[in-house]
Amino acid sequence: MKIPYIKALAALTLGACLTGCGDKFLETDIPNGVDDGMALNTVKNIGYALNGTYYAFYYYSFAGTESVVLGDLGTDLPYWNAKSQHFNDIYQYSVTSTSTILGDIWEYGYKVADNAARVIEGADALRPSVTDEDEKAELDRYEAEAYALRAYSQLALTNIFAHQIKVNGSDFSSMPGIVVIDRPVMPYQNVKRSTVGESYAAVVSDLKKSLEYFDAAGHDAGTIFYISPKAVYGLLARTYLYMENYADAAAAAKKALDLAGITELTYTEEGYKALYNGGASNVESLFALDINSTQNWSAKSIGTLWSTYGYSPSPWLQSVMADGDVRRAVWGWTDTSTQDVPYFNSGKFGAFGLGGNPAYGTNYLVNAPEMFLIQAEAALKQHDVPGAQDALLTVAKRNPVYQSASDLPASEADLMEFLKEERARELFQEGHRLYDLRRWDVKADVYASSPSSVTWMISGYDISDLVYPIPDDEINAGYGVTQNEGWASTLPKVK
């Protein structure tokens, strides 16, 4: 990575929060600078530095918008009406190694990882001098959150800039992964990419460390807007699923649900729509961003992308979402929408309780329905059809047609196909579809070209081979990061 640049960003973020952050989440005024070498000398300053890390995480260039939508837009879930140019290179597979979106994700993903590493190192150095028990507990919580943020960022970076670790039983863990940040990056330091397997091992290690520090702290922040143990277990379940470590994935998903106290979901249209009123309205969410009417990315928000900028559910997704399915409660079309040029109302980003402004819709990043779907897939992969049906039914009941396990397919093959569609229905707009299609080795149909029929510009694409390029600026910086060899050949050919 551009080491002097990353170092400067880290110093600025820590300095900004040490001098400008108050108790309000993500307050980022910068009245004065502070040398980051002297910054992390109190528990309070560690907390301010952690808020700076959250800010980089929350920023639209990473989890605020771009790293999330990347997982949906190049798949079979969206349709783009071509009335704006936002993200069209991702949707059309005309991406290059100078892509602004990929550059943003790389920069801010590493900003999160590097800043988290600084919080971890600072907390470790400070701990021996902290004698107050409450301060010790607070320091442990801060370190727990930093480990989890680093794990999230490095999992996202690995999935975007490296090959999927497992593809329907085939192991690609020896392929080039990312530059793993296990400690802060120093100025002019040469680095090298780890393997995909090593990158995933770092993610798992960080998540387990996070749980250790939460256990030591004995508490979390008590809100879905900060990482908590239930969210960490959710991320661990997701990671194990990608690794095809099904037993551990199911166990972690169960732990996440148990900690959240969630055994059932919402099955009415009114209740489902209320999940997306904005802020903490989503009682099924384990971790979310605090995006609201006063704190949002305006034109750069995901909600704007799924409305004003012309993205909507694809004809295929609409065809598999039954009319009576309660998830359609958040679907609608704007007054300017036509059959030929549809404009979506932004769906899950509707912020219906905040005046319906799509810019105010938050990202619910780790959610209970995903955990039930992980349990279902893990059971199915271990040939436990009844177990898979039970877990899957918890989500499938969003469509009132499915009221008992006997309403679901009975064979492993048919149930797996149902599960694939159910993940599309349930996780639409949450940014998982690309990684699902890749790990399942689906010959994908992407780039929907007609709003009134299921027509694809790209059919039968071997999407498991897709690897996005590392930004040219990083490669050209000359500090050891190598490009994904032959990445352009993994892109599909458009009709």
In a nutshell, what does this entry contain?
With 495 residues, this protein is mainly alpha-helical. It has 17 helices and eight strands.
CATH architecture of the domain at 3-225 and 425-490: Alpha Horseshoe
Give the termini separation. 36 Å
- The helix content is 40-55%
Question: What about the largest sheet?
Answer: 2 strands, antiparallel
Model regions low in confidence, pLDDT < 50 over at least 5 residues: 1-35
* Overall form: globular
The string of secondary-structure elements, in order, is HHHEHHHEEHHHHEHEHEHHHHEEH
Which structural class should the secondary elements be placed in?
A: mainly alpha
> How many H/I helical runs?
17
CATH class of the domain at 3-225 and 425-490: Mainly Alpha
Mean pLDDT across all residues, rounded?
A: 92
User: Radius of gyration in whole Å, from Cα?
Assistant: 22 Å
Spatial order of strands in the largest sheet: 1-5
Strand fraction equals: 5-15%
- Please give the number of β-strands: 8
CATH fold annotation of the domain at 3-225 and 425-490: Serine Threonine Protein Phosphatase 5, Tetratricopeptide repeat
